[in-house]
Specification:
7% strand; 5 strands; alpha+beta; 211 residues; five-stranded mixed β-sheet; 4 helices
């Protein structure tokens, strides 16, 4: 923000509109904290420069120095308790507060990127699931059609088997009838032969009797 009033207006708006919280930097020209880096220490301003916001950086980081590690920061604070020490590992330490630790802790940007990546993967999986559902539905329809064709063919086969069984039964009955008819023909033929023989005898006897 260009001045303190603008920063206060932002905070007031956030509170009245229930928009959450924010950290606001105030860049008011001519408003310097006047912090001086103790001699013998390396100011963080040696590593951070910007001509456009030089006053703001000096106000924010004028009393911030750099140390190799947390132990070195402790030694500096023992002698200069008013400074803020930033280590090369990213720890920020003052006489009243220390923040840092493992580098495995994810930043908000990293967490947001991870959420976006997982959301993208979830969307891809949803699309894949929809595609698989469509393929399964198509396959199920095809199976249903083929099952109907199979059932129809099986029904025709069963009908053919039934007709064959009926014809076989009729053939057996006809065979039995033929067998019975053949026996009857043989019986009648034998009877005819016997009657013919009897007729011949009777004719012979009649002829003898006539003479």
């Amino acid at each position: 923000m260009k001045d303190l009033s603008s920063a206060v207006n932002v905070l007031t708006t956030l509170r009245s509109e229930n928009l959450g919280q924010a950290d606001v930097l105030v860049h008011e020209p001519g408003n310097r904290a006047g912090n001086q880096t103790p001699s013998g220490l390396t100011s963080l301003l040696s590593y951070v420069r910007s001509p456009q916001i030089a006053e703001l950086l000096e106000s924010l980081l004028g009393a911030t120095v750099v140390a190799d590690n947390a132990r070195s920061a402790e030694a500096i604070l023992r002698q200069h308790p008013r400074v803020t020490v930033v280590t090369r590992d990213g720890d920020v330490i003052t006489s009243q507060r220390a923040r840092g630790g493992s580098t495995s802790s994810s930043s908000l940007i990293e967490i947001k990127a991870l959420v976006e990546e997982l959301s993208k993967k979830l969307e891809e999986l949803n699309h894949k699931c929809d595609r698989l559902k469509f393929e399964i539905s198509s396959a199920a329809t095809e199976v249903e059609v083929k099952q109907s064709a199979f059932d129809a063919a099986l029904s025709k086969l069963n009908e053919s088997d039934a007709r064959i069984a009926a014809l076989t039964e009729q053939l057996a009955v006809s065979g039995q009838n033929i067998k019975s008819a053949t026996a009857e023909v043989e019986r009648l033929t034998s009877a005819i032969d016997e009657a013919t023989a009897a007729k011949s005898r009777d004719e012979n006897e009649l002829s003898i009797a006539s003479h």
